[in-house]
Amino acid sequence: MRVLLGSKSPRRKELLNKLAINFELVSIECDEDFPAEIPHTYVAQYLSEKKSSVYKQLEDSDLLITADTVVLINDSLLNKPKNRKEAIYMLDLISGKTHQVITGVTLRTNSKTISFSSQTDVTLNTIDSNDQKFYVDNYPVMDKAGGYGIQDWIGLSHVKWIKGCYFNVMGLPTSMLYKRLKYDFNYES
Fold first, then answer.
1. What is the total count of domains within the chain?
2. Which residue numbers are catalytic?
3. What pTM value is reported for the model?
4. Domain at 91, CATH number
């Protein structure tokens, strides 16, 4: 079985490598629009399914992995910030609060598709405006849902606690993914 990763995320690539999964990167261009009426807790899975459906070059021995991550705070959905101002706004919004990080994953072959999502609760200490600006100005935040990476400085300095999968917050619920690959697709490392 040839595993394909349809993602531009360096963190997803890193996590699959650490799982000892041999894979090839494939490019998938897909807008991240979604119907306004779907529940926010389903958006990440919806987008992973949408990305998967766009890829048309699947061979019979291929298994495609696509994923998407969103952050929920109260009833607000945070995706990737578009600029510095929006990144600081997002950090201010989640500062001192608990938010949910949801990653949706789709695994697809020509004969089977399985989608699932994982949710992790993350509680942050208060992030003052100086720390917000320092982080946004010194770390790559524009490719991260919610404008932060738990593995970066902000995670080291401001995460109070998490409930759920740490790697899910990085962008891929690795233990859940491995279980699905092994038992639903008979994948062996």
1. 1
2. 68
3. 0.95
4. 3.90.950.10
